[in-house]
Model the fold of this input.
Amino acid sequence: MKDIPKILAVIFLLYLPVVLADDISADQLKQMMTASADNLTAYTYNRSAESTTIYSNESLHEKFAAMKDTEGRVNLTAQSGWWSHRLTDNETGEVLTWQGYFSNGTEYWKEKDNWTQFIVDDPDAIMADYNELPSQVSLLYFSNLSIIGAEVVDGDECYVIAAEPIPLIREIILGTQIYAAYLSSPFSMPDEFDNNSFDLDNTSIQASSNISVTAWVSKETSLIRRIEIDSRLSLSPSILDIEEPDFSIQSTLKELTDYGNFGKDVQIVLPGESEKNSPRTKGVDWRWAVFGLVEP
Done:
């Protein structure tokens, strides 16, 4: 029995490196995530998203449900990017597909079989839109983080993080989701939205909503491997603090994004058919807002 202390000491030493490796604070992880994102050269991502909105009043009950599947590639060294969206209306079965390419300082969209070349005034801003990972890092950076466990994602051991966005970020998420809900709404958009006098702080939307964010961050590289966002809100004239006939809008939005192929040879090749395009200046496209948290 005299050897028990020695055995316990050996066991302690065996486990000590693991304990120390996981002994990291949320603030340290934020800094490491930011540094890793700043040093990215290339990556790919896949996203699945689903949205359901229910509209009702005394005489109406309508539901809009859709799914959106997204793939993307980003090459920061070549300053190029690509994304592909497939949006399915679950009620009608209608499918919308479109792709975006950014290469050699020019952006093209393919909507069904039609190509559009956009007049680009600020290539850096367009590239920032395609390079979406830093915005996900910012979402986590400006949140209260809690490390709640560890899981393996595609062979990469990760911290599992629960994130509570700060009020300003919550307002941005909810404001975008409100706008998206009204785009397919049978109810007219309140005048307060049209004249930009709507003030989220004067409403009870925060109390009538819930935003849940979970992220998986690589222990080895501090890069985000997966992020899940679940947002739910309820709207009514009393919640919005507006003078309108009584109605109810219930909106849910859930998306799951996986990132990978960091630093690998990610190629973005513009198809030859893109030469048959119609140039125009980019305008507002309602499909960006169908899934309010997703800008490719």
